Amino acid sequence: MKAFASAFTGYLLAVFAPQAFAEESAIPHHPALTDRFVIGVGAFIPKTSTSAQLNSTTLGAGTVIDFEQALGMETQKAVPDISVRYRISERWRLEAEYFELNRTGKRALDREIQWGDQVFPVNTQVNSVFDIADTRVSVGYSFFKTADKEVGASLGFHVVQYEASLTAAATGTQDGDVLAPLPVASLYGQFALTDRWALGARLDRFSLSYDQYSGDISSMAVDLLYQPFRHLGFGLSYRSLFIDFKSETSKWTGKVDQSFQGPLLSVYGSF
After folding, report:
1. d(CA 36, CA 271)
2. I need a surface site. Which of 27, 72, 140, 180 has the fewest CB within 10 A?
3. Contact in structure between 225 and 30 (CB atoms under 8 Å)
4. What is the dihedral of CA 236, 237, 238, 240, to 10 degrees?
5. CATH number, residue 135
6. Is 22 domain-assigned?
7. 223: Cβ–Cβ under 8 A, 6 or more apart, which residues?
8. Structural domain includes residue 111
9. Of the candidates 132, 169, 126, the residue with the CA atom closest to the CA atom of residue 245
10. How far apart are CA 156 and CA 182, in angstroms?
11. Structurally, how many domains does the chain consist of?
12. Which tens digits make up the pLDDT trace of 64-98?
């Protein structure tokens, strides 16, 4: 019935108001701006930089370690990325995105380092693990919304989980882990170029100290969307995420400074 009403309205405009019908027909209608659900699965290929410190109650402040340079971790790796958007109403939307990056390294140390309660001497062969999982959840309101354009703001969290460990035959394993919700405020926009092509962008930013956590987080996303089929499309995107994080929990007293920058290739469905 809704489709029939829309078609009948279009027919009346074409017959009695041809100029208005032409203007309406010229407006692109991309599913990314109109469909209620959009679910995407992709490969995120970030170039990563990581420095971290794990302190000790007995030895004091730990060494700030560059995990790529000092411990031989790879700087670039493809990882899965999953995203979901649900339009609660015409202007309200709920979004979530998840990726995780798990890496290992192996290298003989060229200097002494302290990681937590362990001291690893020069020339020690060290096996390292550094894993991160990031879940972004936000609720947004589009204060400007038309059929082909949307601009809004949202509030949410980057829930970040870290697990890291260093292991050597002579000293054993020393590890740390922490789970922290880092609140963010965001601005976003989407623009239909044609019925098949659309552009999107998002900027996240927040700096905060609370409870046992303090930190600064910023994130940027730029998306080029191509949807040749009614319910299936493809995305070429760029993602960047910068985290400067300090923790005073019992499992991780120290800090992490990490960045992720690179392309995201995705397939998405909308309905």
Report:
1. 6
2. 27
3. yes
4. -140
5. 2.40.128.90
6. no
7. 198, 199, 200, 201, 235, 236, 237
8. yes
9. 132
10. 9
11. 1
12. 999 999 999 999 999 999 999 999 999 999 999 99
